[in-house]
Amino acid sequence: MADLDVAFPVLSRADIAALTARGKPREVHAGDTLFTEGERNRSFFVVIDGAVEILEHSRGEPHQITVHHPGQFTGDIDVFNGRPALVTGRAVEDGRLVELTPANLRRAVDELPDLGDIIIKAFLLRRELIQASGFEGVRIIGSRFSPESHRLRDFAQRNAIPYRFMDVETDPEAEVLLREMGVPPSETPIVVGQMGRSHRNPSNEQFASCAGLTVELEPGHVYDLVIVGAGPAGLAASVYAASEGLDVLTVDSLAAGGQAGTSSRIENYLGFPSGVSGQELMGNALVQAQRFGAQISIASAVESLGIDGGDRRVNLVDGSRLTSRCVLIASGVEYRKLAVPRFGDFEGAGIYYAATPMEAKLCQGEEVVVVGAGNSAGQAIVFLAKSAAKVHHLVRGNDLGRSMSRYLVDRISKLTNVQPYLRTRVTSLEGDGHLATVCAESADEGELRFNTSSLFLFIGADANTDWLRDCVELDNKGFVVTGNSLPRSITDNDRWSAAGRAPFLLETSLPGVFAAGDVRSGSIKRVSSAVGEGAMAVSFVHAHIGKMV
Ligand SMILES: Cc1cc2nc3c(=O)[nH]c(=O)nc-3n(C[C@H](O)[C@H](O)[C@H](O)COP(=O)(O)OP(=O)(O)OC[C@H]3O[C@@H](n4cnc5c(N)ncnc54)[C@H](O)[C@@H]3O)c2cc1C
User: Ligand 1 center to residue 233 CA distance, Å?
Assistant: First the structure.
């Protein structure tokens, strides 16, 4: 089926009748506005008679994206997640529509799987088509060399916020826009949102709030489950928990998708014979969780965990306090840094921990350095080699095959613009405001200097467990200990006697608090195991809550 038929299908009479039964009729007149850009939680409309045009104004002038005729429907994935609409919908003829609230649409998609499939596929494709059509989204104006500009672009990219970056160093339009707004280049980066509202160097929390990524928390509400971390483990748990009727909230300090969302191509995830980009896999998982009604709040970092009688308390950095019967720790790991002088000067200004299309664009046609010997380094090399002039690959050990999958080693060995350096370590970094040179020491070749503005690091990771402090048992590397690995001294204590049972497989030293994915001691650090553990954890949540009632 052609893309446009999938994105803008005409529903059958039976499907229209099924939606009519779940919505309410609405008469419209030519010129009536149904929803406007920036509006959150908008309804979904099916056209019965008449026509509805969809417009966008991101480039200043109105652009008509499409006109929905009888049997067609409005909306894209933002109908499920409540984010601000990117487009405006307006009746162009007098007519009749059926209106469904987001909750009614969610119910319809659950109850009518075939129709649900048509709607979800259309929503996903519409988002791709609008971005490919020149839609500009928010504008981030700043210098490509500024760490703060990089932070904002990274945040937008990882959270699928459509954006256009305007580089003050090279883009004459950026200069004109800044002059019009009366902002000197020294006060960039600046984010200009829909309807022209601008924010100077917003924090991730402010950006998330404007982009509608934050969930309104209800004071005093007791959740069944709060999930900390929306990587593969947290998202899988969100899908299962929401689809099985649990009252669940998932919070993430940065973006849904976790590390997997930064992977250029995941080749070993079951069901994708030709591989899948991490952003696509995780983007679909997010939509899936939200379509089941999971609430996912982004840029909501957790500061600590506590106990409140029989409930658990999750304290956010912004001062919010969440109460929940169970908690799932799915906070994963954080990439390791190099212990070399001036490292901090170049974070976000030439040092990267992911190789996504955004970073590839930044170093297009240039030489880059990749450090690391695992699969994530291998994937990055394969991806970057397509756009970089040369990839210098630095490895501390003397055998790549020990830590990298064979398929990646073979693929890299065939790339003519990749130069490996075994038994080599980075010694120092140089540059003025932005990375310019990576200095290294090679056991075979002595001192090396690479003139490059991009250093990619994939040198392992440490558990994200600072926020757990003395609350749950950690192993000597800081990973969360669960189930049978918990020492007898803990499982024999009063808390477990009161619980009247032994800890479940993924349960921590605190009853009702579970851990899944990379953060868990002894887990296999893979997308599929994180997904599996996230799903399993939900069955233990049911068992724990069942015992509590
Ligand atoms: C570049 C790269 C490529 C990879 N490629 C593959 C591959 O091809 N195949 C494969 O199987 N595996 C791959 N992996 C590994 C895989 O991505 C991880 O094993 C998987 O993402 C772990 O999932 P997780 O949910 O346990 O944790 P993570 O993915 O680490 O997610 C944890 C989440 O928790 C959030 N968080 C952390 N602390 C807090 C806090 N205090 N408050 C709120 N939120 C918090 C983080 O922001 C993050 O989103 C790759 C990893 C990388 C980095």
Answer: 8
